[in-house]
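Run SOSS complex subunit A homolog through structure prediction, thanks.
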Amino acid sequence: MTNERPITSRLFTTSVIEGRVELDEKYDKAYNSVISLTRGLSEEESHHALNKALDDRKVHDELCLGLLVSILADSSIASRHYHDLTLVSRDSLKVVTETLIHQIIGERFSRLSESTRRQLLWLVRELVKTGINNVEGVVWCLLRQIAGGDVSAKNVWLAESLVDILRENRPWLDKFPVIVASVTYTYLRILEDHSGPQFAGLRQKEVTFVVGLLRERFQDCLMIGRDLVRLLQNIAKIQEIEAFWRDLIHNPTSLCPGFTGILQLLQTRTSRRFFVVRLTPEMEKKIVFLCTDVKFGMQKRYQEWFQRQYLNTPESQTLRCDLIRFIIGCIHPSNEVLCSDIIPRWAVIGWLLSSCTSPVATANSKLALFYDWLLYNTETDNIMNIEPGILVMYHSMRPHPVLTTSLLDFICRIIPNFHPPLADKIRAGVHNSLRQILEKRVVQSLEPLFDNRHMDVELRKLIRETFPEFCANSVMGEVKHDDFVAPVSSQSVTTMDLLAETGLDFGASAVNSDSEVNNSNHIGGMEEAMFSEDEEEPPAQKPPPPPVAKIKVEENPVTPPSPVAEMEDVKPKVNDVNSVEEKVDLSKHLEYLENDMKTIILDLQNEKDTKQRCDLLQKLCDLIFSDDLDQMETVNLAYCLCHLLSDELTPGTSLLPQDISAESIQESLGNPLYVIFDNLITLPEDDHRRQPILQLLVEMHKTTYQVGYHFLYFLKASNIKSDKVQENNESSISTYRDLCKAAGLKDFAAFVIRDLRFLGEDDPRVLSWIIPDIYNNFSKQTRGNAELLQLVLERLDSSQLHDLVCMVLQGSLQMFDNSSFASILEKSLQWETVEQLFLWQLAKAHEIPVDCCLSVMPKLKFTSHSALVSNTHGEALSNILMMLRRESPTGILLRTLLLREFRMEDPTVVTILQYWVQRYEDKMANLINEVVNNKPQPSPNKRKRNQSTKASAVPLDQVLSHLNHLRTACGQTTFFALETMQDILQTAQNQCSETQKKKYGDLFALIEEEEEEEPAPEPQRKPKPSRGRKPKGRKKQESESEEESSEEEDVKKPSRKRKKNNQVGSDSD
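Sure, done. The structure for SOSS complex subunit A homolog is below.
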């Protein structure tokens, strides 16, 4: 089709239907600016002309953007203009990388022309080769564009081009562990798609590259977690992968010294970033839309549309596993969605399973569904990851009995067959899953599922053998109602072809009763499944159109939602504001407004100029000041403003300018929304006109959550207009507290955390920029708040963390103190590893002493080279050990360590004991002596102190366990040869029972060796002295109980030896 010139684009493909967009105009303007400056000039003259024009910041960004467009649009001048770009850029090419990430690759990669794609890969190669900042984000976005299950020429070319770039720049890649892991995950996954003979060369190139990463950077790849094993299983027949697989199973330490085996990987939950990287942005947007905006029973047209676009070829069947893992791991619906009539996740997964046309892909999809069941841990795993599996089986019993029986058969057979050496642990993991499913009331009972009399006899027998504790006690397992239409044999299940169910409308036919609809989404009594509620169900007169909104996906459960009213925000894309506004009917809301106000709203709806919109909002504020609003007027006005300002509320880019300065911050405050904020903060606190504006903002905040963090940004940014930042900062930002009071909320901490959570999801840069002011101005509610701290840490990168550490060291920021750190540390044990490591960096900056960590020590678990404890706390223990090594041993520290439960697999206590013994040998002996002889003193004046000392006494068996571990693990015998340690061992032996003497016989043997060394010079006289020593030993014990000085006891010992020697001499005479 030929297009007329006006609708063509320099970078993107266009058609009569999809023509030029606003972005094209912006790019053309920037491109023409560059061409007008450099036309007809030599390279040196061009440099001079470009540098001369860089006095203005806006011109700098425009020139960088124009050079980028020229590089992508014209290959003949690409090298020259890239050289120009590196010379004129004053922000390390930040404009370029952010444009690539957020616009060209992130949003419109599929619309790029063929030549532009080739130039884009050429540019990425040059950026990587030069080591430009943030180019790792560009590479990550390109990884997402490699679609799974797609063997088209464009997709294969992209995969090959990117692997070539990464192979050529391997030293650069090794600097970014997350990119290493993401690259490994991506290419392990697409190797399954490149199995055809036509891809032999590419496949070998990918295999060599990814195996090299696995062997050389396995420590980085460990962060992938259990899904690394799943991907390796799918391609285990490749020779190089098979060799790696053998090392993974039989020789794990050859890959990484600290790697204990495949169990360590399987117990690590895979982060959502790896599920996200395997779906293109367009694919992600559509599947999230299906799961969060489409009503149950109306999903068929969307499923057919999605299947035609992404699942219509034999090769695309492998994509189903990626979709299932994404839905399970990333889409965790809010409470509002769970209780609504939105299509539940289990129905979408059931459709993906039932419409699969490949037996191999079907088996892999089942494994993807139940993968988190295999080693499920109730403390570290999320119930939302196992909920879809049980609900698919439970709700498919009637409409799809073949699917239910096939899944039951699969889960029974996977336990002994997945990895036979771990069969017991897998069985325990599946049982843990089922127990928590019942505890959280995901389903009321498993009896209808496991004890159905219509089920095949062999399958029922297999289920009873596998899950005896979940089956009824009766032999036949009677059921109160018929769940199955007809019996299905286990033989038909194992050889089942799901093509028979492809034509079924999965989920729509499941709407058979009101009870099923009402309970399909709900998980009763489950605190862990309460999520922030950030999506509104769409207007439901007719099925909603394909998604145009940016929809948020959450992985981890958050605290129960605050009592703030639910939001009704429609989140449009930047370039679709007009189309969204046309669909919104404001007439019903305008009826409640006065004529003057109604006129302003209508003018605002039609006005596109920013300055004019600001003037209109100022007129609106003046009207509010002159005439107070009633409740109905406020609610309807807030609704109208939220929709008319939707473009300003979701700008699509960071609120914070790229280069932060007073001028750039001032420019960012030109948002029309900020006119309302400015009118509020300029009024004195006692001015009665503040209340109508506050109430308007409260209603807008209820309607659109972005209002809250926009207000926070404005309050801080408005104080950077001059050098007098500190004078007005506190009084200005405290206005945010007035918003909470006006909303009638008492929990200010929950209020601010809610807004900051949304801010972290939408704009992490602004969160890290504004968080110091939050801590400083609202210290009572924020300092020491573990939930807020985790919210901040999960969104930080290394540079933002460094900024916070610097502020803490400068004394301008305090996020917690000694009194609150123990509570934070205990709650952090369930955080991600990176979040915990960031926490310890901040703890070092805050100079938290080791005493604040002692109360948590007994709760910390660790297992070395074993699998007895699955929820280990290596991050906390490692950092506490580093703190202890800087301390000199004291009685309190030693008692706390010895009170820690002894486990042979835990090297924590023995490590620090050995470290202290090497440096403080005598002091350690004296401290251990105090611990062993910890008895109340006879003095009545010290009664209270004796009681507290006795309460903190360490059991003798505990002390001996750790001392024996010190002897065996570290080979410490010279320490036990000290005279003080000999007395300690002798005292301990006298206090031990016969069982304990046998248990610690090797430890007490050190005493016997010392006693045998004394008569060594005259071995022929051994019997006589040994016979005479026993009564003397008893006499010595009696004398020790009577004497007060230990020095006198030491003097008497050699005298007795001398007596024994004299007696021997007289016998010889």
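The mean pLDDT is 78.
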